[in-house]
TrEMBL record:
<feature type="active site">
    <location>
        <position position="259"/>
    </location>
</feature>
<keyword id="KW-0630">Potassium</keyword>
<dbReference type="InterPro" id="IPR016160">
    <property type="entry name" value="Ald_DH_CS_CYS"/>
</dbReference>
<protein>
    <submittedName>
        <fullName>Succinate-semialdehyde dehydrogenase [NADP(+)] GabD</fullName>
        <ecNumber>1.2.1.79</ecNumber>
    </submittedName>
</protein>
<dbReference type="Pfam" id="PF00171">
    <property type="entry name" value="Aldedh"/>
</dbReference>
<dbReference type="InterPro" id="IPR016163">
    <property type="entry name" value="Ald_DH_C"/>
</dbReference>
<dbReference type="GO" id="GO:0036243">
    <property type="term" value="F:succinate-semialdehyde dehydrogenase (NADP+) activity"/>
</dbReference>
<keyword id="KW-0558">Oxidation</keyword>
<dbReference type="InterPro" id="IPR050740">
    <property type="entry name" value="Aldehyde_DH_Superfamily"/>
</dbReference>
<dbReference type="InterPro" id="IPR029510">
    <property type="entry name" value="Ald_DH_CS_GLU"/>
</dbReference>
<dbReference type="InterPro" id="IPR016161">
    <property type="entry name" value="Ald_DH/histidinol_DH"/>
</dbReference>
<comment type="similarity">
    <text>Belongs to the aldehyde dehydrogenase family.</text>
</comment>
<feature type="domain" description="Aldehyde dehydrogenase">
    <location>
        <begin position="27"/>
        <end position="482"/>
    </location>
</feature>
<dbReference type="GO" id="GO:0004777">
    <property type="term" value="F:succinate-semialdehyde dehydrogenase (NAD+) activity"/>
</dbReference>
<keyword id="KW-0560">Oxidoreductase</keyword>
<dbReference type="InterPro" id="IPR015590">
    <property type="entry name" value="Aldehyde_DH_dom"/>
</dbReference>
<dbReference type="GO" id="GO:0009450">
    <property type="term" value="P:gamma-aminobutyric acid catabolic process"/>
</dbReference>
């Protein structure tokens, strides 16, 4: 651990396998975690392989049997303690998160509380895993439906929300009575490990949660796919890797929860409150330096307000403070790695070569390293890469449109269907457009849509399943129909 992290109580540079903290693993290998703001190595972790994943799965399989037998309330008590510990330790968790991922400290703290809210929510829902009584189809029959936990869950999470993406999976899994073996992104394993530490302190029985730190994600994915004790794979990440996991899981008809890529449209109609739309765009586009799967990727602005919106947005974006997430007042941290900067540069170069203009930013920030200038592009058209692919960076490309039908068609012209946003003050249009957008999530007159009380998830190639809300437990339970005869 680096000196700074040594001061963070919850920074733990060991893997957590089957209820034990490990600094040595079978491969004998380690890997480094790097602070993207400075390039410094902040921790060195054991590089787990097949052996450790199998060990974690075996322990999860055993531990789950007793966990499933507990009452919802008994599971809720532990989840509530974990929630309290996360809130009490939010500052510490935020420092660890910013150190490994780069986002501004205030955003990191927000993420920790957002993740904690899922733990709280699903702890409460654990008590409400209701079944059903169905009127029998014959006079001597009675029909009952009960909910039972799916079993062992394999979870693979990304680097952009290292705390909340795991919280969103472990909360419903543990609440439902499942156990979970998690594999955090290799760039950001410390946040997951700190949550395991708190779960242990909260009294979670050993083996129910493992955190396998590994650079060999495909090995972990294969064990999850091929070990029939793992009943479900839950994954947040790219559509490309989602496809691999789904293919691999096909042999065992593995249950899949997939939160994949997005290509979110953000539509500003002529009748919108432009100031609100600008604020919505800042929240949706520039949060986490544009590195979220619900970030606005394509901003469609109606012709009548195009120039005014471009002007207002650029003024606001020009004021965003870029820097290390640990510095006061910073709103845009570094990109996660060089490849992310390359993709942003490639999208800007492609757009400008095809006729777009850089209204603001457009290049690496003067701080160097992985810092990039928040950027606004105008004159963007559907033939450009940024129209089809997720840029995943602080770039706002502005497309001009004339009418509602055209913009809905353009917005839906993508294989993705996660989040979408639009701004309008016309009630009829609000219903029409919200219903016409082929997305799992629609934000109307807001750029912020994530909350534990609502179902988060995508349609089309953005995924399967929903996280959060009263529906979220469904993904971690099976329905069992019991038919009582001879009554
Ligand atoms: P991104 O890095 O763009 O968020 P990825 O889909 O590459 O998206 O990564 C998300 C998670 O999936 C990470 O934990 C990564 O290590 C893991 N991962 C990458 N490739 C595979 C694979 N073939 N099998 C299983 N997990 C994978």
């Amino acid at each position: 651990l680096s000196d700074k992290l040594k001061k963070a109580d919850l920074a733990e540079p060991r893997a957590y396998i089957a209820g034990e903290w490990r600094d040595k693993v079978a491969s004998g290998k380690t890997f480094d975690v790097v602070n993207p703001a400075t390039g410094d190595v902040i921790a060195t972790l054991p590089d787990c392989g097949k052996e450790e994943v199998e060990e974690a799965v075996a322990a999860a399989y055993e531990a789950q049997k007793a966990w499933a037998k507990k009452t919802g309330k008994e599971r809720a008590v532990i989840l509530r303690k974990l929630y309290d510990l996360m809130v009490e330790n939010a500052d510490d968790l935020a420092v660890i998160l910013t150190a490994e991922m780069g986002k501004p400290l205030a955003e990191a703290r927000g993420e920790v509380l957002y993740g904690a809210a899922y733990i709280e929510w699903f702890g409460e829902e654990a008590k409400r895993a209701y079944g059903d009584i169905i009127p029998g189809h014959q006079a001597d029959k009675r029909i009952m439906v009960i909910r039972q936990p799916v079993g062992v869950v394999g979870a693979i999470t990304p680097w952009n929300f290292p705390n909340a993406m795991l919280a969103r999976k472990m909360a419903p899994a543990l609440a439902a009575g499942c156990s979970i073996v998690s594999k955090p992104a290799q760039q950001t394993p410390l946040s997951a490990l700190s949550m395991a530490l708190l779960a242990e302190r909260a009294g979670l029985p050993k083996g129910l949660l493992s955190v396998v730190t590994s650079t060999s994600s495909s090995t972990v994915g294969k064990v999850f796919s091929e070990d029939d004790r793992v009943r479900k794979i839950t994954f947040t990440g790219s559509t490309e890797v989602g496809r691999i996991l789904m293919r691999q899981g096909a042999d065992q008809i593995k249950k899949m929860g997939l939160e994949l890529g997005g290509n979110a449209p953000f539509i500003v109609f002529d009748d919108a409150d432009l100031d609100a739309a600008v604020e919505g765009a800042i929240a949706s586009k520039f949060r986490n330096a544009g590195q979220t799967c619900v970030c606005a990727n394509r901003l469609y602005v109606q012709a009548g307000v195009y120039d005014a919106f471009a002007e207002k947005l650029s003024k606001r974006v020009a004021g965003l403070k870029v820097g290390s997430g640990m510095e006061d007042g910073v709103e845009i941290g570094p990109m996660i790695e060089k490849a992310a900067v390359d993709k942003v540069e490639d999208h800007i170069a492609d757009a400008t070569a095809k006729g777009a203009s850089v209204k603001l930013g457009g290049k690496s920030h003067e701080r160097g390293g992985l810092f990039f200038e928040p950027t606004v592009l105008t004159g963007v058209t559907p033939d450009m890469k940024c129209a089809r692919e997720e840029t995943f960076g602080p770039v706002a490309p502005l497309f001009k449109f004339e009418n509602e039908d055209d913009v809905v068609a353009m917005a839906n012209d993508t294989e993705f269907g996660l989040a979408s946003y639009f701004f309008s003050r016309d009630a009829a249009k609000i219903f029409r457009v919200a219903e016409a957008l082929e997305y799992g999530i629609v934000g109307v007159n807001t750029g912020l849509i994530s909350t534990e009380v609502a179902p988060f998830g995508g349609v089309k190639q953005s995924g399967l399943g929903r996280e959060g809300s009263k529906y979220g437990l469904d993904d971690y339970t099976e329905l069992k129909y019991i038919c009582l005869g001879g009554i």
